[in-house]
Structures are given as C-alpha cells and as structure tokens.
Amino acid sequence: MNKRIYIGLLCLTVVIALPFGTDAFLGRSWVRLLDFALLYTMLALGLNIVVGYAGLLDLGYVAFYAVGAYLYAMLASPHIGMHWPLWALLPMGALLAASFGAVLGAPTLGLRGDYLAIVTMGFGEIIRIFLRNLNITNGPAGIDLIDPIQIGNFSFGSSHSLLGWDLPSIYNYYFLFIVLTAFIVLVSYRLSDSRIGRAWAAIREDEIAAKSMGLNTRYLKLMAFAMGAAFGGISGVLFAGFQGFISPESFTMGESVMILCMVVLGGMGHLSGVIMGAILLAILPEAFRPLSQFQQITFGHVWLDPANLRMLMFALALIVVMILRPEGLWPSPVRRRELHQNDAMPASVQKEGP
C-alpha cells in the first residue's frame, strides 16, 4: 500500500479519536476549544488567500466573519421570527461576505502596504460600529437564542447516541467543522495550484511585472478579496450556530490581528503552516491560563495583574518565535529560500553594496 495512504489513514484515525481522548484526559472544555480551533483554521485559510497568496495586507478581515454570523443570527432566531435552515444560510453567508469583500477591494486596488492595512482596518471598525448602533442587529446587546445548526432532523446542538457512545453537542460540532475545514483546505489547495493561484503569486512578488505580462491585476485582486471573504462568511455562520449568542464585541480589531498572526506565524502561503499556526494560537492562550491563578505580581512600584500575565507570556512567546523563525514555523520551500538566500552567500558578497 502506498505510504501516503498509510499516513492518510493514521491522520484520519487521530482526527476521529482526538475529541474522545481530549475529553478523557483534559476535560470537555478542551473539546470545545478544539471546535474554536477549527473555526479559526477556516478563518486563517480564508485570510491566507488575501495575505499569503495575493500579498494584500488585510486588517479588517473580521468584518466578513461578522457579516456571516449576523446573517445566521437574524435569519435563524426569534429576533425577527425566521428560522432558515443551514443549507440555505451557508451559501448565503458566503455570497454576502464575498460581496462585502468586493466592496472593500474595489476602492483599495491602488493601495499597497501600510496604506492598504489602514483602510481595511477602518473598514472592519466601521462594520463593528454599524452592528453596534443599528436597531435591526439589537445594538450592543447582541442577538441571543440563536438556533443550533441543524441538517434535516439532526440537530448538532443536542446530544446523540452512536453505538452506545454518548456524543454531546460539542462532539457533533467538531465533526461538522472537520468536514467543512477539509473542504476549505481542498479548495485552497486547488486554488494555489491553479492559473489564478499562480497569477496571485505573481502579483504578490511584483505587481508591475505581473501587469506588464498581461495579467488583469484589478480583477485578480477583487477575486482574492471576495474568495477570502467568502470563507470568513462561512466561518461566521458556523460560529453563530455554535455559540448561540453573538454581539459586536465578538468582532473587534483584535480578532483580525489574531487571525493575521496565525497566518504569519504558521507560514504565509503554505496551507500546512497556516493550519498549524491557527491551532497553536487558538490553544496557546488556554495553555497559559494557569498563570492567572497566581497572586498579584509586583516589581517595585509596578504591579501586574495575573490575568494580564497570561497574555504577556503569550505575546512574548510570539515575539521569540518570530525572531527565531521569521519565515514562520512551517513555511513553504520558496519562502524559506527567499528569506535565507543571503545565508548561503559568502560574508564578503553580503557586505557588498550597490
């Protein structure tokens, strides 16, 4: 049997057994954390299309996450008295978020670098402020009593029994998220190896050269924004059904920065690296939670709240990793060569200037 088949079967076994083992050794709260890790993985894969493939710095990506979540919350809750099924809301969330992505991309096509980051960051904040002040979204109070995800007569929000095993709702959501994450990984892989993916790579490396070779850079940039936003909308729909309650405070700029960190830390443009970065950054803050149990820490006249110590250690861990591995924990071979091409040169060559 092919070696890849063995590896695939091993990975499938680990994925299926992971929630049961996690529940047995760490507790059910960690299974819920795995669910959130999969949601962040879908978000990171969507942002990877914009940042990793096309090289467009987007700091407002959480806005598309919010669009999908509020679409599901309003159309599948008593808020406006509608209870639409998932099979209708999932594609609607993707299309609506893709439309918002195109709206964001259209006026920013001529911007690059920091200027693009500032505009996209402003877009994300505008969406959050709108959600906070509109009556239809229930303002800062948010929307509760959201219907759990249901496919046919099977409700993912209820416990089920399978071959004598009691499967709580967090197990059901885990397997649903695994299937949808695998779908997004497949789409992302096919995109990276397609003509569109190679065109995005050309824009990322040198937009002027790509344009001179006949590529329609405006259309390709819009497609990157729309495709990445669609994945964000899908993740938002799943988040609203899983959480059962959403508010504007769930979609702050800090979330956008965290998702961007997942892409950069794992390895921009590399699917395996992005998945690793998303899972690590989703779990790492929880791993530092025991630090919150310490007493107040004092350095002379400076005191540190233990709750902030956890996030401080998390930030220091990120800084150390990026100093030691600027290309990411699992970068693509091309990016690794680009960042370390000077390491293979003699010292005399590296010192030569233009």
How would you describe this structure to a colleague?
- This protein is 66% helix and 6% strand.
- The model has no long low-confidence stretch (mean pLDDT 86).
- The chain has 14 helices and eight strands.
- β7 (297-299) and β8 (302-304) form a beta hairpin.
- It has helices at residues 3-25, 28-53, 62-75, 86-105, 113-133, 169-192, 195-205, 207-212, 217-243, 253-266, 271-287, 306-324, 333-339, 347-351, and strands spanning 76-77, 82-83, 150-151, 154-155, 160-162, 165-167, 297-299, 302-304.
- The protein has a domain at 31-266.
- With 354 residues, it is mostly helical.
Radius of gyration: 22 Å
Mean pLDDT, to the nearest integer, reads 86
Distance between the termini: 55 Å
State the order of secondary-structure elements, H for helix, E for strand.
Answer: HHHEEHHEEEEHHHHHHEEHHH
Task: Using the alpha-carbon principal axes, give the shape.
Answer: globular
Biggest sheet, open or closed, and with what strands and sense? Answer: 2 strands, antiparallel
Q: Quick one: how many beta strands?
A: 8
Bin the helical content: 55-70%
Spatial strand arrangement across the major sheet: 1-2
Number of helices: 14
Structural class: mainly alpha
- Low-confidence segments, ≥5 residues, pLDDT <50? none
Strand content bin: 5-15%
